[in-house]
Amino acid sequence: MEVGLRTALKRDELLLHYQPIVNMHGSKAYCLEVLLRWQHPKRGLIFPEKFIRLAEDIGMIAQIGEWVLRESCLQIKAWHSQGYKELPKLAINLSPRQFRKKTLVADIARILGETGVEGHCLILEITEGELIENVEETIETLRQLRALGFEIAVDDFGTGYSSLSYLKRYQIDTLKIDRSFVRDITNDPDDDAIVSAILAMAHSLKIQVIAEGVENKEQLAFLVSQGCSRFQGDYFSQPLLAAEIEKTGKIGVKPHI
Length: 257
Description:
The chain is α/β, with parallel strands linked by helices and 257 residues long. It has a single domain (2-247), classed as EAL domain (TIM Barrel, Alpha-Beta Barrel). Helices cover 41% and strands 21% of the residues. The protein has an eight-stranded mixed barrel with strand order 1-2-4-5-6-7-8-9. α3 runs parallel beside α5. The longest helix has 21 residues, at 61-81. It is globular and about 50 Å long.
């Protein structure tokens, strides 16, 4: 796996899938989460949980993270060139080690400049645990990223340290409720209470909420009843390749020629 991963970028074996995050009040996707895949020549399609930790251990995570950002920007450019308007934002995950890299902001700014894409076209997702490490440094990093136009989202909220006291200081735009709470939301009182509390807190702080892992209409109905309006999960769409996403009609308006 290590030998294969070291050559995966050179052999063009990495690819991106996109999963729509939908708004209850619109037919288009609010944004598309960018999901990394490795098309291994012998093992087939490998999901990131099988190789991201390895990439971190062998010092490749920053290189892969830059590749994901660059490819995402190039995809935005490609959609624009095809005539698509009002494109949804692309949401990109930053790994903890990538987020702590001293040159993170400079590297991201360079890629934006090279591709001609503006930061407001993208959302950067960080994990909850990153909010309580090196607080002042994190605040400054997020300030610089927001100055480039990025929205900031906290991924898998509720599974880590639940740093509620930090949310106001960090000026987070979006919380993503982890799928582990959504999965049993209709029959587990604890999950019900956790999700309801997150939604109430977020609304009071004027923070948007996305519920991950929505798989059926019962989960959707409960979330809507609690005031959630943005959703992600197989009930709406599985992760798809760019060409497949285009066929769904969720990525924007393409004028007739």
